[in-house]
What we know:
Layout lengths: L6 E8 L2 H11 L3 E8 L2 E10 L8 E6 L12 E10 L3 H11 L7 E3 L2 E7 L5 E7 L22 E8 L2 H12 L2 E6 L2 E5 L8 E6 L13 E8 L2 H15 L7 E2 L4 E6 L5 E6 L27 H7 L5
Helix pairs in contact: 3-4
Amino acid sequence: MMRSNGIHHVTAIGGGAQRNLDFYTRVLGLRLVKKTVNFDDPGTYHFYYGDETGQPGTILTFFPWAHVAPGRLGVGETQETVFRVPEESIGYWVQRFVEKGVPHQAIEQRFGETVLAFKDPDGMRLALVAVPGIEAEPGWAGGEIPAEHAIRGFHSVSLLLEDAAPTGAVLSDVFGFTEVGREGTVVRYRAGDTAIGGIVDLRAAGGFLPSRPGAGSVHHIAFRATDDAAQAEMVKRLAENHRLLTTEQKDRNYFRSVYFREPGHVLFEIATDIPGFAVDEPAGTLGQALKLPQFLEPHRAEIERVLPAVA
């Protein structure tokens, strides 16, 4: 059996760069751990938000395109991205969302857990889950959120699919997840004892409209691989057991990645834990300077001229 491999990061599409930065660092209190560019479209930022060190399982990233059209929720897409907060902090977050005018729903129960669903300025579907016993986990206190109420990485993602079973087979066989519960049309999978980013919910919605990517949409979900060898073993399992082929490995500076479309058409990535976000700047100053991969450094002046100013 493969070892359990939870979520490494989630990458989404946003609107204006400054608005995106303000919401995730100031309203939600995440740390900007890396400010770089889309390697395939260097005229666009790529923001990475996470905990103090940007550990896998805490990272939400964005491509902010100022004039991108809104996305449409549909099958073949991530429906919701869910964060963990201490159980006693959920009341704090309700009050904060009211004060900041953040659209949110009434608190509800899912799989016996207390959930507060909300949306970002582009309509991206997010939620907080109150998790008991995580108060001692470190929380980033460099923003506006007191450390005791800070977000503690991902709880889960939920995928909207025509049929959940083929995707569940990939989660189980390739990433080491196990089905642990069902609630209505939702099937919950858990990656062993992985606490951060260890849950994927699959919602079957046969006959629903297909998704349309845009602002507020998740571009892809990345799962963890310890290193290149672990990643290669997953690639082999995908090909041999599921007839799914990945891209060639791509060096993203902070991890190395392969990509594939899972059976429900959601774009999945397998990203290595190494080398991490401190590879090109000290941990104490993560996210402060614009970092570029070596192949783009000769074009820095041109890239900085095109990118919108953010603070």
